[in-house]
Amino acid sequence: MRDLNNLTVAVVGATGAVGREMLSTLAERAFPVKNLLALASSRSAGESVEFGDTSVTVQELTAAALNGVDIALFSAGGSVSAEFGPIAAEAGAVVIDNSSHFRMHEHVPLVVPEVNGQEVVAALQKRVQQIGPRAGAIIANPNCSTIQLVVVLKPLLDSAGLKRVVVSTYQSVSGAGQKGIEELWEQTLAVFNQQEMPKNVFPHPIAFNVLPQIDSFTDNGYTKEEMKVINESRKILAQPDLKITATAVRVPVFSCHAESVNVETARPLSPEDARELLMRSPGIIVLDNPGEMEYPLSSELAGTDATFVGRLRRDESVENGLNMWVVADNLRKGAALNAVQIAEIVLDHWGRESRSH
Amino acid sequence: MRDLNNLTVAVVGATGAVGREMLSTLAERAFPVKNLLALASSRSAGESVEFGDTSVTVQELTAAALNGVDIALFSAGGSVSAEFGPIAAEAGAVVIDNSSHFRMHEHVPLVVPEVNGQEVVAALQKRVQQIGPRAGAIIANPNCSTIQLVVVLKPLLDSAGLKRVVVSTYQSVSGAGQKGIEELWEQTLAVFNQQEMPKNVFPHPIAFNVLPQIDSFTDNGYTKEEMKVINESRKILAQPDLKITATAVRVPVFSCHAESVNVETARPLSPEDARELLMRSPGIIVLDNPGEMEYPLSSELAGTDATFVGRLRRDESVENGLNMWVVADNLRKGAALNAVQIAEIVLDHWGRESRSH
Questions:
Q1: Which residues in chain B are contacts of A329 at CB distance < 8 A?
Q2: In angstroms, what separates the C-alpha of A80 from chain B's closest C-alpha?
Q3: The sheet that has B35-40: what strands, in order across it?
């Protein structure tokens, strides 16, 4: 059993853009952390990061550092997760991993709490049965663009079925981490100063440009980012044959990903009914008042928790077609917040387990 | 008959972003202008504009100023076209109008030379039959986002039929004219200087943001820009029932519109065959080499004439589905160049007419 009054929580990759957001989200939501470990590579060890009102010294990530951890939030890249995720889980931690490494593993749940939060509890129960009361586990946190999409698709699926989805994204540079934010800033300054643009993060200049490439290309002409949206959406929604296609585009925006989403539902669903449905669905705020020029804007939604939907309208080009515009903060709902929400499910489950014994 | 050695060409709205581009395009393409009239509102009269190596003084647009004009390129907004377009045509000018005012008029051809250039000649012949040898006419130049879309759709239509088109745009601020360019520039500077952003042109800040609104909203929840893409594409392609939907989005880019285009063809067309087809189609350059991270980029294509296509790939979510990324300079192919290309068809027709007499 876990001692819920004495929880040790580790954030792995604590100095990155998502890691910092994980720390602030844990603090904001008053997650009952007794011992907070901020872990990172040896390069960042010794730095300080903020956790609520306190400052925490970053320690080097080692196997030994993961001993005694109850919950480990990983956001340090796929290779770090591949190496240290299983070590942490073996040592009894529930690993909530923001990298893509485990997402498509058959036995790892890929979770968006509003959509398939119950899979967390099922996975924990199974591990406890197999291993014992302090069994660890690995739970994967999906791709940022996928999370906000499936939050909106889930109620449509449940209410009217999904026949086909076509999504084009408008993704902010913070999706590439702190260094992505810096590159947009520095390139923009270079344009103003008529200097050569620094170019380290993105494949082409992002300042005053749009890039139809996020991550590298796969053999079928899609980028890995596009295939993540396709494959992860299918897994999270438990619709392995979902008809969905994606074009992922980087835009010169600091925070929030926007998506132009075209949906064909299997059964009729009017825009009015879809709006009502989305308004009462978890994690969604409908901002849709064209007369007042009100719709979700990336510039206004940084730091928010919900997935925002607007521009909801009938697509007359197909039976049961809907168009909409979906925006969320990619560092929060798209990463840190979703991970912490998963941690809250874990905590809630442990709480119920301990009360029932 | 026209004296082709003594052509008078007027550019109405000569001081605007598109008007200036019309002047430079006429000069670059060595259009045989004998007398060039730069016309604008009384506010701009007296200013100078560049025409090739010469400087031309802007005159006030009046009915009298349009007397004796052979070809008038209008880009001064819908109300100016509504008032002075018919006056110019009545006085014998072939009006090529870049405003939206006449585009959907039943008897006004809406022309993209690569797609339906033959409609120009048909319209001129009909007017000459009705009125006489020096008959004027009005020909409409389509919306910028529409032009680059139909250039690409036309060969697909001819080769494999079009079942449905879903387009999401990434449109530059120059689509809103010189003042749009200035607003992006000034707002970006204001962000750097931590000052209040000036906001005169766009409904919300455009610096470091994406706006899912271009032009005002219509009753069906679509913007006018989106309805232009839908309705004008149908007219130009002569497919009044074409299944097409659009989401038009402004991005903080100075020049070029990009489009994420999803096409279902009626008959099978492989990405390889589509690529071959587009490579040999007029006005199109295929830039599609993902291995080299090569695809059309807004930042690199300002000042170019072609419509560029890349990211061409199979959409597996539907039978005969294709995804592609389409970029063109909205001030050139999307406006000035297309208008001058129409003028070249007019000139060519007059040349053939005069040689046959």
A1: none
A2: 27
A3: B59-60, B35-40, B8-12, B71-74, B94-97, B137-140
Tell me: pLDDT of A357 over 80: no
Task: Please determine, for residue A1, whether its predicted confidence score (pLDDT) is greater than 90.
Answer: no
CB contact under 8 A, B221 and A166: no
Q: Where in chain B is the domain with CATH 3.40.50.720?
A: 8-142+335-355
- The secondary structure element, H or E, covering residue A273 is helix A271-279
Contact B249 A271 (CB under 8 A): no
Nearest CA distance, A250 vs chain B (angstrom)? 11
Q: State the pLDDT confidence band at A356, using cuts at 50, 70 and 90.
A: confident
Q: What is the pTM of this model?
A: 0.97
Does the A8-142+335-355 domain belong in CATH 3.40.50.720? yes
Q: Which of residues 209-228 of A touch B (CB under 8 A)?
A: 209-213, 217, 220-222
CA-nearest of A90, A132, A88, A125 to A109 is A125
pLDDT at res. B145: 98
Assign a CATH topology to domain A145-330: Dihydrodipicolinate Reductase; domain 2 (3.30.360)
Q: Is the pLDDT of residue A40 over 90?
A: yes
Identify the closest residue of chain B to A163 by CA–CA distance.
B317
- The distance from CA B201 to its chain's CA centroid, rounded to whole angstroms, is 20
Q: Residues of CATH 3.30.360.10 domain(s) within chain A?
A: 145-330
Nearest CA to CA, how far is B323 from chain A (Å)?
8
